[in-house]
Structures are given as C-alpha cells and as structure tokens.
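Journal club side-thread
Mid-discussion, someone asked how the predicted structure for our own chain would compare to the paper's figures. Pasting it here so we can look after the session.
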Amino acid sequence: MEERLIFHIDVNSAFLSWEAVHRLSLDKDALDLRTIPSAVGGDLKTRHGVILAKSHPAKAYGISTGEPVVNALKKCPSLYLVPPRHSLYEECSKSLQELLYQYTPDIEPFSIDEAYLDMTGAIPFGSTPLKTAMTIADRVREELHFTVNIGISSNKLLAKMASDFEKPDKIHTLFPSEIKKKMWPLPLNELFFVGRSSARILKSLGLRTIGDIANTDPAFLKAHLGKKHGELIYANSNGIDTSPVGISPAAAKCISNSLTLSEDITDFSNARQVLLLLSETVGAKLRKENVKASCITVEMRDCDFNNQSHQETLPLPTNSTDTIYQTACKLLKESWKGSPLRLLGVRAGKIEEKSQFTQLSLFSYQEDEKREKLDKALDSIREKYGTDAVKRAALLDKKH
C-alpha cells in the first residue's frame, strides 16, 4: 500500500499580503505593505479591534497577531494600520484554491489561508514531492504575487508542524523518521493542543520540549492533563495522526458576500441597506449559476472583532433576491444585540441545481412569479449597463 503524502499550504501573513497585492495591482508604484511595519486590524481613528495580520518588519517591534490595536500602536507608533476587507481575502483564497485543484482534487480548506492536500499518488511522473511543492510555491509567487509555506509529511499533523518551521516562503519536510531531529527539540508550547494552561502544568512537571513529552509515560500525562487530553498530547508529540483529509462535499458549497464597513453601523435601517446590497450580489450569483439555496446565513463582526452568525433553513429553495434579503433582515433582527458592526455578510448554503419544475406554494405562486420576473429584468439591465444602473428602492421602504 502506498504511503500517504500530505501537503499543508499556509499563506504568509495572508491578510496583509493580500492587501499589498491588491494595492500594487491598482498602482504598481504603491508602497508594498510587506516592506514596512504594517498590520491589518481595527483602524487608527477608533484604536479598536485586534491585529489580524502583521508584516515581518512589524514583528520586529514585538507586535503579535491577536493583540489589541492600542497595544500594537504603543510598541510602534508609526505602525501603518489597514482595516480588514474580507471580501477581498475571500477572492484571494478562492484564487489559491483554484490553483491547488490543478494538482489534486483531494483538498481540505482548513481556514481562509490554509489547506491540506492529499498528494498520495498525485506527484507527476518523474517529479518528487519536494519538486512538486517548489512548483506550487513558484506558481503562487509568480501568478498570484504572494507567498506560501508548504509542509510535507505522511499525515496532517506533521505537515502542519512542518509548514510552521522557518518562514516566509519556505518548504519543509517532517516525516516520521525526522521527528526526533526536527520536532523533539522544539519548546513544548509549539506542539498542537498545548495551550497556556497545559504548558504551565507540563513545565511544572519538569518538561520543557516536545521530546520530553514524547518520552514521558502516557499514564503520567493522563494523570495530570486528563485522559483524553493526555492521550492526544502524547500522540501528537510522537507524530501520530490518522485523520483523513476532509474533502468538502459538493452539497456543502455556498455562495456568499460580505462587506467590511468604512464606518460602524449602529442602527437597523443602515444595516438593512447593506444587507440589500449583499443579497443582490448573492441572488444574482445564484441565478447566474442556475442554482438555488435552502439555507440563508447572516454573519456579523463588531468593532472588537467578535464574530456571530445566525441561519435559517427555508421551506423551499430560492434564488430570489427579495427572499434572501427579507430572510437576512429577519435573522439580523433576531440576533443583533446592538453592538457597532464592522462587517456584515450574507451566505446562501445547501446549494442545489435548479430543477426545470419548481415546487410552488399554493398561496405565493403569483408573488413568486413577480419576483422571478423582476430579478430577471434587473439582472439583464445590470449585465448590459452595469451594477449601479438600477436600484431596488422599494425594498428599502419595507418594515422589518
């Protein structure tokens, strides 16, 4: 049986890199954010939020991902701060995935900027895992204009550990035969699932490195960390992981759009206008792909970067902008507690092909027919004259 081969792809300083690439695409003479102390997160005006990504020059000031913006500005008053734009990041992530799918269909997106690839049997004839990884990294750099780290191993845990070695724009291997040399000397807090609390307990027991954990009696670890956590930490320290690359089924596909707001939204009326804009985009994309969705989700991010989402399954699948919009308004009203919003998103999930014969509600047939005709008319006008050619002012007057 062929040994598994797993790649872990990790974008270097993803949000910051993607911001830099976007700015340079608009102006080739623009300042590259990656070359100065810069970060994505919050804004200078409010000094709210946390650092989501940082440049390497910013790292030299001791700035870390996840710390409050106000703290980062104390460390580096000249820090160039960029508010996040998640719709841009989604586009960049999609471009990366499209490139990766040219090498294997077995891909598990782990986050917006990370993915596992099951490359078992997928290495081109005459090549090697290292050469293939180099080809992928080169293409990302040349075609997408940002860089990635790639970890190579026989399981997901070790591939992920390998990609976290020296950065940026590096490729590392960590096969089981390399664990003793490459992984065991590392500080124990670099092992997955060793959080602050676990690290404090392990250090109090005289353990300092991942190798110390690996060479400790598992019963001793379970006695101090609990049965499940002790077993997990011991297995991880020895590079044991049998989890498969979780390939997302087609049914899990979704169409979404989100908007990072230039100013916080604090009232429902303004929020509805944003939801309308997002619903227009999502509805148009559904109709263009000739599909319908039966689950609508509203996503929120407040000024302190707390995330929240609320969803509803519809009685019938839809691609109607009006239905998506009204459902989104209902979901927002049910879940929003009034904290200032920085980001709003609308996602249509549980996608299915549009049938030639649509199940109709006896009581809404005429209304559904009107909505479908309106959507088609607006899509046609916008396709011909641009997205701003016509607005749905009537929807904004509705009470929700």
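Post-session note: The first strand starts at residue 6 and ends at 11.
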